[in-house]
Design a protein that fits this description.
Length: 147
């Protein structure tokens, strides 16, 4: 494993740990807020949102970790295929609960929105602060191609 792969893998592992913390915080605060806002329906709304958010977040990180050392085409294909599967699962869940009254839609939306914003902040901060070395093919080196 080269330096770039190791640093990239470390970045994804950091993201994974921070996302798990975010899910734990959402579980405590989301369930508490859901219960205070809408009782048991709010709890179900929060649980559904946390489960969907966790599924999306953690499968993305798992795919990225699994394809860190793979060629870009394979990593991209895995990412797109994973995204398609996640969207199909999301639509299936939303169709299954459409018109049901066991959960509170506003709590569901609120907790899911907080999860999306929180995960985006975590991922962007991790990428911005990661120290991934540029060890390309040498085409960007000073004097490359000047022989």
């Amino acid at each position: 494993m080269d330096d770039t792969t190791g640093a990239t893998r470390a970045m994804y592992q950091t993201i994974q740990r921070q996302l798990l913390v975010l899910l734990g915080v959402l579980l405590v605060l989301g369930l508490g807020a859901g219960y205070l806002i809408a009782g048991l329906g709010g709890v179900w709304g929060a649980l559904m949102a946390i489960a969907i958010a966790g599924f999306f977040m953690l499968t993305t990180v798992a795919i990225m970790l699994a394809t860190t050392d793979k060629p870009l085409a394979i990593a991209s294909a895995a990412f797109v295929a994973g995204w398609l599967v996640k969207v199909l699962v999301l639509f299936g869940i939303l169709i299954a609960v459409r018109g049901r009254d066991f959960y509170h839609p506003a709590v569901f939306f609120g907790v899911l929105t907080v999860a999306i914003i929180g995960s985006t902040i975590i991922e962007m901060r991790a990428v911005a602060t990661a120290r991934v070395p540029n060890t390309g093919s040498g085409s960007t080196e000073i004097g490359a191609g000047q022989r």
